[in-house]
Specification:
Layout (H helix, E strand, L loop, with lengths): L1 H19 L5 E10 L1 H4 L2 E2 L5 E11 L2 E4 L38 E5 L3 E4 L5 E9 L1 E9 L9 H4 L4 E9 L2 E9 L1 H7 L4 E12 L3 E7 L2 H4 L16 E2 L5 H10 L5 E7 L4
Parallel strand pairs: 1-12, 10-13, 11-14
Antiparallel strand pairs: 1-7, 2-3, 3-6, 3-9, 4-5, 4-8, 5-7, 8-11, 9-10, 12-14
Length: 266
């Protein structure tokens, strides 16, 4: 299903490049993934837990870029510190909280890969685009079938390890999520409607995908997780409340932001 969707979107892209817009010129795109700078040294989630990551491995899928405006992000929790997981378990609401009309597909990177989010950057395979406006993007997860971390990921799409602290309580944790669990939260593992800093592409350049793991943990309450230790972190079991909260966080559109830097000044 995911590959079928990729090919369908690719077809729309070719139509746009070859016929839908006679002025569009096809250009090459470099692709890189980085962690949000404000999260590198640690971050405080909306739940109040301060988190430092020791490992963050992710199996990624195709990326798509559109001329439609991004979806609306509802940052729940700023006004009310009570977090109710069931408020988020609504069909598609967690992945697409606002109305989203993607518009024309003006760019893409179609290869599965795997990234170490704690690395300074990860270079993904090349993508391409047609000259035109970009305002929103789709991030996607994949089973671990491409990139340098395939063996390390095993059958998991996300593996995260770290320490969470709150009110003198310290929890060393590890959590692994397979693709099926992500696909239950976002169809085909696609997180659509993410913000692409508005830009008009005139030539080749680099798309940077900035991932902010703070959004992954905003709903996670570590009070239900045993303290563990640095040598033996507590594994958050599947389908427990903290696990569900984490999987919901993985598909939040606010966790992924796209920017474009031209090879030459535009």
């Amino acid at each position: 299903m995911k590959r079928t969707l990729s090919l369908w979107l690719f077809g729309l892209f070719l139509v746009n490049a070859c016929g839908g817009d006679t002025t569009g010129q096809r250009v090459a795109l470099h692709t890189r993934v980085v962690m949000a700078p404000e999260s590198v040294a640690g971050f405080t989630a909306l739940s109040g837990w301060k988190i430092r990551l020791a490992r963050a491995w992710v199996a990624t899928g195709p990326l798509y870029y559109f001329d439609g405006a991004p979806s609306v992000v509802f940052d729940r929790g700023k006004e009310n510190r009570r977090f109710r997981i069931m408020d988020w378990v609504l069909p598609s609401a967690h992945a697409h909280p606002g109305h989203y009309a993607p518009g024309v597909t003006n760019g893409q990177m179609l290869d599965e890969f795997s990234i170490d989010l704690l690395a300074p950057e990860t270079r993904l395979p090349e993508g391409n685009a047609v000259t035109g406006m970009l305002r929103s993007g789709t991030f996607s997860f994949s089973p671990p079938i491409g990139g340098p971390l395939v063996a390390a990921l095993g059958n998991q799409s996300v593996i995260v390890q770290g320490v969470a602290e709150k009110e003198l309580v310290q929890v060393h944790f590890a959590v692994s999520v397979d693709f099926a669990a992500i696909a239950r939260r976002a169809r085909d593992g696609l997180v659509s409607g993410c913000k692409f800093e508005p830009t008009t592409i005139h030539g080749p350049g680099t798309v940077t995908v900035t991932v902010n793991p703070r959004s992954w943990f905003n709903l996670v309450d570590f009070a239900e997780v045993a303290p563990g230790s640095a040598e033996s972190p507590t594994v958050i079991a599947a389908e427990t409340t903290p696990y569900i909260a984490f999987t919901l966080g993985l598909v939040q559109i606010g966790a992924y932001r796209f920017t474009f830097t031209p090879d030459t000044p535009q």
